[in-house]
């Protein structure tokens, strides 16, 4: 890639101490059942997430929170910073331990959803859907299909799973190409390495253009996914990536990809030295 065309437009070098910069990051919190059968509650507590010594640290612990047996942290930039195309460069060291599932990924920008007044709220402020009746669901405002997963699109800059300590995953998901279709996803690949990404810091980077995504490890290309050749009316279903997305950093515990948890491996420690975003 020709990096000369890019300039830095957003960064967090974690050159401060305390909680992540509230002007740049949102917390996602809750001790309910998160997707993919994950086992953690997400919190904003200093024990789970903090900035110190030039690093952002996410710590996942064996710690009961409501019905969840583990705690961890998840932050995002939605409504604070979103990008359409660019070069993303993150220097990080993944956590050790079977059951850890850290990820650096992006989802489409979304406006804050205003729910009807009649929807009950839980103690954490989120809607309480557990006691919804069939009639409640019928009158509840439906999100357009194009805005729901997988049609909305998902960009996984890099994922790591502690039970496969020498492997990294680089993926795109769309309505046409996702694991739920039962067919192989041409935009999702893994690669095994002769080193362990949990033992040292590495640069995980991605170039996103209108025509392709290219994923890099320490500056070396790993995978490149080209815009598919499909009829125009099917393009959004295959490639919903021509719109703004926001960044997410988290560690899930267990779940469909994380697999069985080894409690003796906790706490999992995910460290990030910086996040840099460049655009043309």
Task: Walk me through what this model shows.
The chain has 280 residues and is mainly beta. Helix content is 5%, strand content 39%. It contains three helices and 17 strands. The strands form two sheets. Strands 1, 3, 4, 5, 6, 8, 13, 14, 15 and 17 form a ten-stranded mixed beta sheet that branches. A seven-stranded antiparallel beta sheet has the order 2-7-16-9-10-11-12. A hairpin with a 3-residue loop joins strand 13 and strand 14. It is globular and about 55 Å long.
Rg is: 19 Å
How far apart the termini lie comes to 12 Å
Count of DSSP-assigned helices = 3
Described by strand count, sense and barrel closure, the largest sheet is: 10 strands, mixed
Which labels suit this protein?
17 strands, seven-stranded antiparallel sheet, 280 residues, single chain, ten-stranded mixed sheet, mainly beta
Brief summary:
The chain is mostly beta strands and 280 residues long. The protein contains three helices and 17 strands.
